[in-house]
Target: Dirigent protein
Amino acid sequence: MAKFQTFFSTFFLTLLFASLVSATFYQTISPDQLRAREKLTHIRFYFHEQITNEKPSLLIIDPPKIMADSPLPFGSMVVIENRLTIGPDVESKRIGKAQGFYLSATQRPGLDLEIVMSFTLTFLEGEFNGSTLCVSGRNEIMLPVREMPIIGGTGAFRFARGFVHARSVKVDYHKGDATVEYNVYVYHYSSTTSSSHHQRVNEGLNFMTDPILSKI
Ligand SMILES: *[C@@H]1O[C@H](CO)[C@@H](O)[C@H](O)[C@H]1NC(C)=O
Model:
């Protein structure tokens, strides 16, 4: 009898627990809880690709043996950790870094490359220190200005959407070094309820670390 009772109480407790879990594994949140308004920010910096540096900022992964008449044959993958600076000079103040990769995605020979890039911009200075933006898109490098979408972000850039314009400033096609001006246009949120930076980033957006949701 005792065993029977134990079985049933365990059974009902399990049921109760299961229903609690299923009731809390997601929830709808009113966008009003953001307590923030959407704003548009423009950021400009310079992106430096330095292959001739003693510590190169990029690595070419296993270039395919076909189409040797291209500096970056179709299918090549390049991994980058590039310095972002405030001015066109690589020695000017560093404000962040770009990390990610790109693929050579055209079968046309020569320098007229079409690459598909996917990288993260991490800011290391100022209001956006520690926040990141995610860029993913096609880059036809010989065009004067290339546009790529911003597909998201973290920190101050949660819910980010926008685009970047990339414009080559200095390119050494023989060595492979390049300096590219980036103009970022991004919609993101800023809290209207507080003034300090830390609060601006976190207040109103802290439901994203809601203890209920973090148990998933
Ligand atoms: C950026 O944030 C990091 C980590 O919180 C901190 O160590 C660093 O001092 C900050 N840099 C600036 C320039 O505020």
About this structure: Helices lie at 2-24, 197-202, 211-214. The chain has three helices and nine strands.
